[in-house]
Amino acid sequence: MTTQRKQLIIAIAAGLVAVIAVFAYTASINNEARTARNAALEHYGGEQVSVLVANQDISAGTTLDSANVTSADWLVDLLPQGEVATDFLEVDGLVAQEDIKGNEPLLLDRIGYGTARISVPDGLEAVSVSSDDVLAVGGAISAGSFVDVYVETSQGEIVLLGEDILVLETNTSQTEDEDDEQVAWVTLAVTGDSVSELISASSKGTVHFVLPGNKGSEEGA
Predict the structure, then answer these.
(1) SS3 state at 37
(2) CB-count exposure of residue 66 (10 Å: 0-12, 13-18, 19+)
(3) Mean pLDDT across the stretch 133-145?
(4) CB atoms within 10 A of CB 175
(5) Fewer CB atoms < 10 Å away: N or C end of the chain?
(6) Which pLDDT score is estimated for 70?
(7) pLDDT tens-digit map of 19-57
(8) Residues 6+ apart with CB under 8 A from 94
């Protein structure tokens, strides 16, 4: 048998193995999809289900109510993965743990405790911005902390937005497992003139929270 013929046979065999592998992978994916779909149909009870959706963009830290949540019919096949809210009582008064887009089904794992029913100091306004543990001093800030707020712009500049700003609330403030919860949003008490500046800055860049030296967290203040 010539070397060229051997190489041809090896190439054909390798091609067959590759085709078999693709078919096996595709069959596995299809089986997983069918299993997930059947589970969803069993859970929700039909091809189409009435679920709760955001009727507008909802920022992290916003309390859910009838003004920003509505019911809509949704094909089970198109629902996002996870437990989707179907009853208003499941979400009423809870808080968005992260930004939710308008017309997006409400996943229960993106909603949690925390409250917008907070005491805002006279002359100031409450505004919430998305965050995480790294940006929030490793998750060290909490309600009552006083922080300096910096924004990293899309051009890479670091700009100081304000100093000694009171933290009114975070998503971890009202949870029972606060030690294990990661910061997802922070509510600040700022002047009215600073609200639009902070919202604009957070949408264009990354907001960093800094605990000033010798001040730290004044929790419960």
Answers:
(1) helix
(2) exposed
(3) 76
(4) 14
(5) N
(6) 92
(7) 776 666 565 655 554 565 556 555 655 577 888 999 988
(8) 63, 64, 111, 112, 113, 114
51 residue type, one letter? V
Q: Specify the pLDDT at position 127.
A: 84
Compute the distance between CA of residue 142 and CA of residue 173 in angstroms, rounded to an integer: 7
Q: Using an 8 Å Cβ cutoff, are 20 and 55 in contact?
A: no
Tokens of 117: 């029913």
Return the residue matching tokens 């189409």: 48
Exposed/middle/buried for residue 156 (C-beta within 10 Å: 0-12, 13-18, 19+): exposed
What is the SS3 assignment for 195-217?
Answer: HHHHHHHHHHCEEEEECCCCCCE
Helix (H, G, I), strand (E, B) or coil at 143: coil
CA distances from 133 to 170, 196, 201, 212 (A): 11, 24, 19, 17
Cβ-Cβ contacts under 8 Å for 168 (sequence gap 6 or more): 118, 119, 120, 126, 143, 187, 188, 189
pLDDT at 61 over 60: yes
Q: In the structure encoding, which two tokens stand for residue 58, read together?
A: 């909802």
The residue among 63, 173, 192, 168 whose CA lies nearest residue 120 is 168
Q: Angle at the Cα of 210 (from 120 to 200), degrees rounded to 5?
A: 65
Q: How many residues does the chain have?
A: 221
